[in-house]
Amino acid sequence: MSTGFFDGISKVTYEGPESSNPLAYRHYNPDEVVMGKRMEDHLRFAVAYWHSFAWEGGDPFGGQTFERPWYPQDDMGRARIKADVAFEMFDILNVPFFCWHDADLRPEQGNFADNLATLEEITDYLGQMMETSKTKLLWGTANMFSHRRWMSGASTNPDPDVFAFAAATVKGCLDATHKLGGQNYVLWGGREGYETLLNTDLGQELDHMGRFLSMVVDYKHKIGFKGAILVEPKPQEPSKHQYDYDAATCIGFLRKYGLEGEVKLNLEQGHAILAGHSFEHEIAVAAAEGMLGSIDMNRNDYQSGWDTDQFPNNVPEVAVAYYHILKAGGLGLGGTNFDAKLRRQSLDAEDLIAGHVGGMDICARGLKAAAAMLEDGGLEDALKERYSGWKTSSAKDLLNSDLASIQAKVLSEGINPAPKSGRQEILENYVNRFV
């Protein structure tokens, strides 16, 4: 049944590259087979409930610009209207998944008992809608950053009562995710960091964060949740020193607390840029350690230097990201979540559809380019050639030797290597042939 919010907007379908329809897929064809798998099953698109439905259009210098029939988001009646509109949009876009924070789904009640009750109420409502919808839950998470109680962190908070509130909140959100058949659960740190060492015991906070995550893993197994537990790296958002700064930092943290076999990473393009990395760097780091879980696909405004959460529009960037994902074997239980929001001047329901259509098309183009590069093998051939010296028995012996023996070898054989070109420009030109 139509909510009326998307009146005049038909279901989005694939019309092909020649289409000029702004609300049609030109490149995303769910049933197109890429490297032996349907495109939909490669990309596993998910709509972010928070940016699409809960965000009101505010920024640091101005408040709400959007007018939606579920605003103000302060009672369960409007929460149900928001859910109705959300599922209508999922159907229009024909997306397989969505993602949420608890605070996106239900209004803040000011106390845990009522927050839990309203979360359970709206979860039951979502479950009823999912019975007749194609769209399933990719992952759930807890918003432990917006309310003032979280101003000094959640699991890292110096107040044990806040730690307890956080633990209770995550239990409720993991229960809700499990009940809805979610395929992952994400711990989105938000304020797990500090602003000054003058009032921070860094070591204790890290220990508490490690213990908290261990509790989550233990509870996952207790309830039989088969999905993945994911953490999301992020730098300087909003704390000056985030404990989960980037993929490498998170991997080191997980290993320190013995969680490397239990937890993977949910990586965001915008966070990678804020950490001074490329998105493909973060993906490659996680993949190299077997910890690639899922991705949030968006982009930043490179002039602003902030996480602006815009829909992706750069095919070469996306293509190289998916190249490393495909090379790693794909996203598994993860997916491509659009942690992206409209610009605050884009007021209309049509804009919300168009943003997702464009982002899905960009990802489809990137995926096909990535697959073509893998099938062509040019980058892999270049890698093999560059590291071919390590295939010899004498080179392999170096790794099992010692400094004194290696020095003697260099002296006796007169080893004096000449530099070899990295051929970066040739390889960049190679990528551009496919995008």
From TrEMBL:
Keywords: Carbohydrate metabolism, Cytoplasm, Isomerase, Magnesium, Metal-binding, Xylose metabolism. Its EC number is 5.3.1.5. Mg(2+) 1 binds at residues 232, 268, 296, 339. It catalyses: alpha-D-xylose = alpha-D-xylulofuranose. The keyword Magnesium applies. Its cofactor is Mg(2+). The keyword Acyltransferase does not apply. GO terms for biological process: D-xylose metabolic process. The active site is at 101, 104. Binds 2 magnesium ions per subunit. It is an enzyme of class 5 (isomerase). Belongs to the xylose isomerase family. This is Xylose isomerase. It comes from Flavimaricola marinus.
